[in-house]
Amino acid sequence: MTDQTSSMVLHNHDQRYSLWSGIGHLKNAIGQTCNAILLDTRNRQDNAVGPAYVLTSGHCVFFSYGTAYINQTIKASITFRYFHDTPAQHRTFRVKAAHWSSMVGTDLAVLELDTSLTTLISEGIMPLKLATHRHSGEREVINVGSPTGFRQNGLRMSVCKETGVDSFVEHPGVFPGAIKNRCRGLQSGSSGSPMLDRSTNEVTGIVSKVAAVIKNDILNNCQNNSACEAAKFNYSYPANDLHHCFVDGQFLNNTVDCQLKAVEVIIEEPWKLNPYVHMQQDVLGRNVRPTWNIRFSLQNAYYRFKAVHDVKECRFPNDYHSAIASTDGYINQEIGPALGAHVLCIIGIDSQNEALTPALLHNVFTHSVFLTAAAPTPRINLSYSIDWDNQYTDFTHHYFYMDASNGASCQDIDDVRYILFTGSTTYQVSELPITLCSYARNLAGQPSAVRTGVIERSMLFPPIQAAKPSPRRQ
Question: Is 470 helix (H, G, I), strand (E, B) or coil?
Answer without folding.
Answer: coil
